[in-house]
Amino acid sequence: MIKFLQKFLDDNRFRFEKDGSLEKFAIMFEAADTILFSTDEVTESGPHIRDSIDTKRVMILVVAALIPLYIFGAMNVGVQNGIAMGVERSNWGQFWFGLNKILPIILVAFITGAFWEVLFAMVRKHPISEGFLVTCALIPLVMPASIPLWQVSMATTFGIVIGKEIFGGVGMNIFNPALVARAFLFFTYPGRISGDKVWVLGPDGYSGATALAVPAAEVNQHAVSLLDGVTQFDFSWWNMFIGWVPGSIGETSKLLIIFGAIFLVITKIANWRIMAGSLIGLAATAYLTNLMAPFSSNTMLSMPAHYHLVMGGFLFGMAFMATEPVTGCHTNQGRWVYGILFGMLTVIVRSINPAYPEGTMLAILLLNAFAPLIDWFVIQSNIKHRMARYAQ
Amino acid sequence: MADLNIKKGHNIRISGVPSDELQKGLKPKTVAIQPTDFRTLRPKILVKEGDTVKIGSPLFHCKTHFNVFWPSPGAGTVSSIQFGPRRVVEKIIIELAETEESECHDSFRAAEIPTLGKEQILSALLKGNLIPFIRQRPFNKVVNPMDTPRDIFISGWNTAPLSVNLDVILRRRLPQFQAGINILKKLTTGSVHLSINENTVSDTLLEVKGADVHTLNGPHPVGNVGIQIHHIAPLKLNDLIWTVNAQDVVRIGTFFLTGKYDPTIFVTAGGPGVKTPTHIKTRMGVRLDALLSEKLNEGKQRIISGDVLTGKTATKNGYLGFYDSTISVIPEGGEREFMGMIKPGSSLTRYSLTNAFIGFGKKFFSFNTLQNGSERYMVPINAWEDALPMDILPNALYRAIHVEDIEEMEQLGIIECDEEDFALCSFACPSKIDVGGMIRQGLNLMEKEV
């Protein structure tokens, strides 16, 4: 079977070569060919041997780290729906219900993404980049399960085309395409991706706020006692850590996100400096806001760091979006700064800005814009320090 | 006397590591010298086809430095001069005679050498046609004998994959090596730096006097002289450092002691394509397929003159490069793996500096020439930084070269860089970018400018 497939591909290769009948689709053939079989390109000069890692592998590992989140996400959609509708289902029943809801979202994201990627690759004559796989895998995870499919499609289009392709494709983009997609929906159709009506698939008009919205809505209270007082959901720290709470599809299970993050750090795909930096930034800023809390009526200020950690999309953003190698900082010192600023900004947006209870998305997008500047400072310091060494 | 431990870098565990056994190669029928081995050299050929030459006779000289001549690695007749595209002289091939004669020059007693003046030494080196063995940094090209270098660097250990073990080949070479060091010492106003490793056992390297001996430890590319210069006494703009291979220090010493040019060279033949990888004693510029004829494994093999990271593919009738002492043989191409992108993959079939595949211990790995991926735009997952033990930002430097910003390249330290030091970055790059090649481009640009 495998041999037959390889023979079939090899036999038809000529059609896609220069002056072949299907020359225009050569890029699609190339992509299908190299996805099915690893490439047979050999080194020309320079290092005659090469590491086995390639961008395909890098991207597929990120997707692999996301798969547990899909499974948990499907389960959680079912569980939250069960609570809202007051129905009892088996575990399989919960999962099945959730899968039916999120599978169309995933399919729409991948089909739209692949369409644009292939179109641009054909027109711009660049190879189909595997990066769109990660973008398309991330987009459904940062959407609520109730999102209309046409919005998913539009968001993906915006994310891939404006977020990435107009800059020249993977490796050239300034902003994280998956977050650009989410930001697009967030500002154009805020009613379907923010507020308290969208997070749970319940009866019409059912209101189920995320944990972050609870303290954001009240003044002069203590955040933790407020969360403990919620009866509709279990907003205890432990439950939020495990993830049986309303939220976007993939961001609720902090435990699985941490596993994913550790996986990416061990495989050396994601940079641990960004993650460590953002944890430090988050904890330090939360500590500062806690100190300010007695002097303000803002309830969010009283949120302790370990609650910030398990609420909202911070961990998800930290593990899978801030660490995106292309749009983040490219120097190791820069990555520390980038991470710390990301943690700080997340808490600041969450606490100080009453309009946005969640700050992760905006913090990352803002830092994407500033990453080259941070790198510039690191480069300048490297130059200075070299000059000093020469002067000895 | 620096004592440095360097962590960054990686020793590639390629199979076919040459044993310390030293074989004597058969006397070759032909040897060649390839002017393309020397950067920016414009040769003026001094011999014609059919001329008879002796060992050490000048074959060509440099059009910019008329007094620098290149020595013949053998005695016999010039059988052919091969040209490449645009009439570039590629090879001068010499058919060896039965009994070979050497050009004779003045010889010195060992005790006499330290009393010689710089002028005497230079003129002897020039007469003996030995200048090409000395290269300069920046730009890694043959020196101009009129310059005075700040320091001279010699690497006393190799870290490149499958490279020669200097402990083996410098055994009982102390007198010649000592003479070489004494000679080089006269050429610089600074000192002669010799780097060794904590595992060095060779008496030659441990007992030599007159050199500043540094102990450096760490994985490849720390054995590269460029990395050593960077850590011991960094190169500044307008500085000049000379470097000599350890084997060539012996060659220079031998020349002064005997008055004859010694074209013997110790090489390794190793890699997954070689049956019994060993060290071989042979001749400079030896024809590779003749040397390896009975050692190769079945199947299509790529013979590389030099190590697997920086060497040149030797074409069907290729010869050993002038500065190369490693011959690597790896199988050409490989199987295409079905669904290789998604398969978990293990360290039995994949080799990576990342942990993207399931590891089963650190075994030696049979590499082939597969690129293991297609070229893509840069996805900076820190692969370059982890492979480069220098205080240089490879990513920023790459970009500066890409946009040909000479000023920024200089500020980012391109002067200290050489292609070979970045070869491991190219090896590790997930986007399959030839970083070393880009550094070379940048250096060429700089050189034009300077």
Unreliable stretches covering 5 or more consecutive residues of chain A: none
Q: Would you count the extended β strands of chain A for me?
A: 0
Radius of gyration of chain B: 22 Å
Fraction in beta strands of chain B: 15-25%
Explain the overall architecture.
Chain A is mostly helical and 392 residues long. Chain A has one domain (55-378). Chain A is built from 16 helices and no strands. Chain A has helices at residues 2-16, 26-36, 55-85, 91-124, 131-141, 149-162, 177-188, 213-217, 223-228, 237-242, 254-266, 272-292, 305-310, 314-321, 332-352, 360-391. Chain A is globular and about 70 Å long. Chain B is α/β, with parallel strands linked by helices and 450 residues long. Chain B has 3 domains: 1-26 and 105-331, no CATH class; 30-96, OB fold (Dihydrolipoamide Acetyltransferase, E2P), CATH 2.40.50; 383-449, no CATH class. In chain B, 22% of the residues lie in helices and 20% in strands. Chain B is built from 12 helices and 20 strands. Chain B has helices at 118-127, 166-169, 174-187, 203-207, 225-232, 246-258, 288-292, 383-387, 394-402, 406-411, 423-428, 435-449, and strands at 3-5, 22-24, 30-33, 43-45, 52-53, 58-62, 69-71, 76-83, 89-96, 134-137, 141-142, 151-155, 192-196, 212-217, 241-244, 264-270, 278-283, 301-305, 312-313, 326-331. In chain B, the strands form 4 sheets. Chain B has a 7-stranded mixed beta sheet. In chain B, strands 2-17-16-20-18-19 form a 6-stranded mixed beta sheet. In chain B, a hairpin with a 7-residue loop joins β16 and β17 (278-283). In chain B, α3 crosses α6 and α9 (394-402) crosses α12. The longest helix of chain B has 15 residues, at 435-449. The model of chain B has no long low-confidence stretch (mean pLDDT 90).
